[in-house]
Amino acid sequence: MVDAADRRTLVLVVDDNEQNRALAKAALEMEGFDAVLAAGGQEGLAAFEEHHPDCVILDVRMPGMDGLEACRRLRALPGGQGVPVLFLTALRDVDTFDAALAAGGDDFLTKPIQPAELVLRVQAAVKMRDLDATNMQFFELVKRQRDDLLRLQLQKERLTSFVVHDLKNPVNSIDLLAQLIYRDKKLPNETRETAGSIRLEVAALMRLILNILDINKSEEGSLATQSAPLDLPALVQGVVEAIGVRARAREVTLRSELAGLEPIAADADLLRRVVENLVDNSLRYAPKGSQICISARLHDSELELRIADQGQGVPAELRESIFDRFVQLAGTGGPAERLVPRTGRGLGLTFCRLAVEAHGGRIYVEDGAPGAVFCIRLPRGS
To answer: Same structural domain for residues 363 and 240?
Structure first.
């Protein structure tokens, strides 16, 4: 008979998605936990009564009995009051969060599953269960404060989403008015050129708005690609022409070397914005008199798209961090400097990574010696 002190911590994972169950099981077992799996609420309750786990991970949305109802019924079972319950959901909103707490949840994680975070939350939940009465009072206070902060964060994210959606209409109206001015031949050339510059800035603003929306979709697990045969050289040439005016104003040459490529299967809108963001990023750091070159390489099963500039480059130790939110290289055109957070910008590269990964590809940075080379690897048969 196994002594209770020697028994490994047992975690019950209840999720209707087989891949999520397998990922959670692998992450937990790698850290020394045991895991028992259930594919639905009713099956999870039966597994709880049979195995008496030390912690329960519950998906919120499941067919039949959902996670909220399963948690309420679990709390009424013998031993159900003291076991920590962690809710796992793709619904990152304050209503779902409040419903999870009301149902008896102890913690709240959002999909897609991050193995390291999942393990840490389970470890913390199990340790908290074993606190004595005095320490438990402090824990409950900290937990309430954490829940209040998370609720505020979710409310902020909802408000941001509403505002971003509402911004699209006035931005489109500005672009329409700028087009009318630009096309009026009776106006002085200087006025029409200013209208053209307004359109370029509006396009950059709209790109930022769409980046935010797509990043939110990705976090909710709903960023999907609409793949179709795509003429990549034509797409890149369109980006070069659209950004060419701004490049010439900065005395930077844009060059495309993609002629002769066969069509690939990709989402034209997402991939166009990826290229626009990367070219815009390169242009921001390209010194006067330099060039930005867009080229491609064919591999066995992949197409590699490369955007190379002659700017400051990205230090090797920071080539992963640059794809995080609100991170940019400080300075322009000078030697490589450390990454610093900046308010209101720095979402472009985050969007690029999410959009490329949604295609089943990957994005990374190489040393251009001088400059940086942003590389996109896409499956040729995606």
So the answer is: yes
